[in-house]
Design brief:
Layout lengths: L2 E5 L3 H6 L9 E5 L4 E2 L14 E3 L1 E7 L15 E8 L2 E2 H9 L5 H4 L5 E2 L4 E2 L10 E6 L2 E7 L7 H8 L10 E3 L7 E2 L5 E6 L2 E7 L2
Parallel strand pairs: 1-12, 3-8
Antiparallel strand pairs: 1-2, 4-7, 4-13, 5-6, 5-12, 6-9, 10-11, 10-14, 14-15
The protein binds magnesium ion.
């Protein structure tokens, strides 16, 4: 399986960076070795001093497809979960400054903790899914899919023009504002519509 992540997909996040709303989705990938499951601890990597959390809704792909039309895209995922797109912000800044790819800042081992998934049928409105991150009991990010620039269906249609989606692939759909640094001994809890689906410690 592979993990595909959408960059800057929330209006407030784009605004706070003084960026125009992107015309096309931006995406990058993490390998399967980035996946961290079952609420296992995240070990703070040695190569960074500024690892940030980005809380994101995650789609689970349930059939293979390429060149998927937007109007059929909803048939290609049947579960939604929550995950953290851990980012070594200092390393990323260095890569960006040099015009290099960001993989070492985004795709490292354990950089994609993912919690339990809920069936899509659980959600009355996919365009209004509330999600939240608490660190050490304090709310740090609070978002809704209503604020996404590109919808789930648009994201799937776009990615599949370039890359075949396969059963079991995960798509991280972007983070709302409020990203920030983490440190060892932090306790993460992530929720969708008030339901806790992910919980882990940083070691
Ligand atoms: Mg992200």
């Amino acid at each position: 399986m592979k993990i595909i992540c959408i960059g800057r997909n929330y209006i407030e996040h784009a605004k706070e960076l003084n960026n125009p709303v992107p015309k096309k989705p931006v995406f990058f990938m993490k390998p399967d070795t980035a996946l961290l499951q079952k609420n296992n601890p995240f070990f703070y990597p040695e190569f960074s001093k500024d690892v940030h959390y980005e809380t994101e809704l995650v789609l689970k792909i349930n059939r293979n497809g390429r060149h998927i039309e937007e109007r059929f895209a909803n048939k290609y995922f049947d579960e939604i979960g929550i995950g953290i797109d851990f980012t070594a912000r200092d390393v990323q800044a260095e890569c960006k400054a040099k015009g290099l790819p960001w993989e070492i800042a985004k795709a490292f081992d354990q950089s994609a903790p993912v919690g339990k998934f809920l069936p899509k049928t659980h959600f009355p409105d996919l365009k209004n899914i509330q999600f939240m991150l608490k660190v050490n009991g304090e709310v740090r990010q609070n978002g809704t899919s209503a604020d996404m620039i590109f919808t789930f269906d648009q994201i799937i249609a776009y990615i599949s023009q370039f890359i075949t989606l396969k059963t079991g692939d995960l798509i991280f759909t972007g983070t709302p504002e409020g990203v920030g640094p983490t440190s060892t001994n932090d306790h993460f809890e992530a929720f969708i519509n008030g339901k806790k689906l992910l919980e882990f410690n940083v070691k």
